[in-house]
Design goal:
It is a single chain. This protein is α/β, with parallel strands linked by helices. It has three domains: 2-130, no CATH class; 136-254, Rossmann fold; 278-479 and 505-532 and 565-593, 3-Layer(aba) Sandwich (Rossmann fold), CATH 3.40.50.720. The model is unreliable at 237-245 and 635-649 (pLDDT under 50).
Length: 649
């Protein structure tokens, strides 16, 4: 394409100044003086080659002329003007002055001839696409935003024959733009006019193109759009504007998190990655949704070595391929193993000596764990104990536990097992701070993995911390993928209870908090994220149906299946007894741990491990003896309904 343009430009430059001479002398070649004809013939080709160099310097061969617009016009004008000035100076100095009209007509004609091949393609494409998009099978689009991004989207839609969409109206909150036109498309009003104009213009799709808008404004506008029943798409961020080009392909479906209506958590991660840089980092459960995002962010900031430890080989292999492709110089170790395997853990810790551990390995599906409670205890509680013991034994500096709001006043085994995990790290931390790390007992199943008489060192310095957050949008097992699949299948969408509510956060937010906790931990803290107001799952399902272009209970039915075993109507972020302390980030808090007898708890873990490995059918009773806030569903029938509800709260 650039070579063709250069050839056209050489012809344009040569032709422009010949036409200038021809016009000056009454459009008769024989009237042009011999001197001018010879001077032109000797000068014009070297001049054209110099002009090509000038045009290259003005980036006239790097643009995408399918999207030619104002910036391309300006570059062409400046390049042509510069070439014309140099032409006038050079030919005058070498051959003497030419007629004044030669300089003027030559410069003007050159500029016009340079524009023709650059804009002809777009003009022809515009008329071709315009004719195509007047057809009945084209979707009618409302564009939200008349700014730079919106204009780029409009331009791309107007010139792209592969996209069967046509913008018929634009919405913008700036009243100075109302009743004006962009590319012959009217700006019809602000956000309050969205629904009226959806009906007036028979809109099929709405494109939201204000990537820099505050989240509250975005939530409100998308909420209004959501009521229209139209298909919604949006720009994910302002990053496209940095490249100066936004196209329809950059648009994505509006995600349900776009409607949560709070600013994303954005802690300053410079200190986090200064802490990680040059250290050996181990991520257990590194193939999962949280674990893999941890690995991505850690890998981007030059650890000495990143170790991914996971029992599920497919997930581990997928993140291994991704990281090796993106970070070819990363020292990456991907190890298959279980946190329930003492020998494997001790081998990994003794060989690699990780300085930081992010413990994300866990069973987390509440109903499945209710059916297999001993597996929840083995993997979550006992697995955390064994991993933490190996960390202390090997001299690890930081141990960060990934916890959950389901650990607060748990009514299910999964939540209780995660509360046990929190108590494990609190107990270990208390022993280390008291200088009694050697008193931390190794579980019976763990002792055979240790060298004879080998205990945790008295001067152990591992700092333990837990990070507690709610449901993660898009994670494995999240309701969002399940709802999307049900919608794709035509419904029904199943919600357990019309009043059930949950706190939500995104995977990047969760990982940022985990990393922050690992950096600022002093030992024993439980970091808690203020996730804003909880969201009703029923509302979430209805919004997702609307975002998909359907009507709840009309096109897609919603069915209520009833609470599952161990499921609460709502989750709590913190037990009332713990209280909160602020951090530098107003949305991140630290819970003051509830005091308990660490010695008694550590002794009790031995009995709990024995019960779990015996697959004791009464394992819930053993858990309840250690976790005083655990209130399982098998509450004695002698309690009244109100008393049961209070216990669940």
């Amino acid at each position: 394409m650039a070579i063709c343009l250069m050839i056209c430009d050489v012809i344009s430059v040569c032709l422009a100044y010949f036409l200038a001479l021809w016009l000056r002398f009454d459009c008769l070649y024989s009237h042009i003086p011999q001197y001018y004809r010879v001077a032109y013939a000797l000068f014009i080709l070297p001049n054209a080659l110099v002009a090509i160099g000038i045009f290259w310097a003005f980036r006239m061969y790097r643009g995408m002329w399918r999207y030619a617009g104002y910036s391309e016009l300006v570059r062409t004008f400046l390049g042509s003007l510069t070439a014309s000035i140099l032409h006038s100076i050079a030919i005058t100095l070498i051959f003497g002055p030419f007629p004044l009209s030669y300089y003027i007509w030559g410069a003007g004609t050159q500029f016009v001839l340079l524009l023709i091949p650059r804009f002809a393609y777009r003009i022809l494409l515009f008329y071709k696409v315009a004719a195509f998009k007047n057809a009945e099978n084209v979707s009618r689009v409302m564009l939200i935003g008349a700014g730079q991004a919106g204009q780029m989207i409009l331009r791309d839609l107007s010139s792209n024959p592969d996209v069967h969409d046509k913008v018929v109206c634009i919405i913008d909150d700036n009243p100075n733009k109302w009743n004006r036109y962009i590319e012959n498309v009217p700006i019809v009003g602000g956000r309050e006019d969205i629904l009226t104009n959806v009906e007036k213009y028979k809109i099929d799709k709405i494109y939201y193109a204000i990537p820099s808008a505050p989240s509250e404004d975005k939530k409100e506008i998308l909420g209004i759009c959501n009521e229209s029943g139209c298909e919604l798409k949006t720009l994910p961020s302002i990053t496209q504007l940095v490249t100066g080009q936004v196209t329809v392909s950059d648009m994505k479906d509006v995600a349900i998190e776009d409607l949560l209506g709070r600013e994303p958590i954005k802690p300053d991660l410079r200190e986090v990655f200064d802490f990680i840089n040059g250290k050996t980092v181990l991520v257990t459960g590194g193939g999962g949704s949280i674990g893999s995002e941890l690995c991505r962010q850690i890998a981007a900031h030059d650890p000495k070595c990143l170790i991914i430890f996971d029992i599920y080989e497919n997930n581990a292999y997928a993140i291994q391929l991704e990281l090796r492709k993106k970070y070819p110089n990363l020292h990456l170790e991907v190890l298959i193993g279980s946190v329930r395997d003492s020998r494997r853990l001790m081998n990994v810790f003794s060989e690699y000596r990780p300085q930081i551990v992010y413990h994300a390995a866990a069973h987390k599906h509440v109903p499945l764990m209710e059916d297999s409670p001993c597996e929840a205890i083995k993997n979550n509680a006992i697995g955390t104990y064994k991993t933490a013991y190996a960390a202390v034994h090997s001299g690890c500096e930081r141990f960060v536990l990934i916890s959950t709001d389901k650990a607060v006043n748990p009514t299910n085994v999964m939540g209780a097992s995660k509360r046990l995990c929190e108590m494990v790290i609190q107990s270990f931390d208390a022993k280390i701070k008291a200088g009694k790390a050697a008193e931390i007992p190794a579980l019976s199943s763990h002792i055979s993995a240790l060298k004879k008489n080998s205990r945790c060192p008295e001067n152990a310095h591992t700092e333990f911390v837990a990070v507690r957050f709610g449901n993660v949008l898009g994670s494995n097992g999240s309701v969002i993928p399940i709802f999307k699949q049900q919608i794709a299948e035509g419904g029904p969408v199943t919600v357990t209870h019309p009043d059930i509510i949950r706190y939500f956060m995104t995977v990047p937010e969760a990982v940022s908090l985990v990393l922050l906790a690992g950096t600022y931990a002093h030992g024993g803290e439980i970091f808690v994220l203020d996730m804003g107001d909880p969201v009703k799952i029923d509302t979430l399902a209805r919004n997702l149906i609307k975002l998909s272009g359907f009507r709840p209970d009309v096109d897609i039915k919603i069915e209520y299946s009833g609470l599952r075993p161990g499921e609460k109507l709502y989750e709590e972020k913190l037990m009332a007894e713990e209280g909160l302390r602020r951090t530098d980030n107003k949305l991140i808090h630290i819970g003051n741990p509830i005091p308990f007898d660490a010695d008694a708890f550590l002794e009790g873990m031995e009995s709990l491990a024995d019960a779990a490995y015996r697959n004791d059918p009464d394992i819930r009773k053993a858990v309840r003896e250690l976790v005083s806030t655990y209130q399982p569903d098998d509450i004695p029938e002698s309690l009244g309904h109100n008393e049961k509800e209070l216990l669940h709260i």
